[in-house]
Amino acid sequence: MAYTYEYPRPAVTADCIVIARETEPKVLLIQRGDEPFKGAWAFPGGFMDMDETTEQCAIRELEEETGLRVSDVHQIGAYSKVDRDPRVRKEVAQQRIQRLLIGILDPSA
Description:
Nucleoside Triphosphate Pyrophosphohydrolase; 4-stranded mixed beta sheet; two-stranded antiparallel sheet
């Protein structure tokens, strides 16, 4: 179903901080392939689909971008600074709201 609104709506993303359960914990980063910030390091994540929760979005984006699967994530924050993402708001009067979630990889699993 297509949605149309009289007023703009924020774009919601879910990014995933992934920590491996090892003697010396490691955090997973991806190198961005597209602008903005092409080549920069980032947490895996992306835009939420209309029919999914932010948790489902984080799990889906993690698998799409890295091939890794986690079954459980927990939200650790939501961030909505107006000018934090140059792709939105200025051109289309839209704000990106980022939900940051954490997933744990167990190397023994």
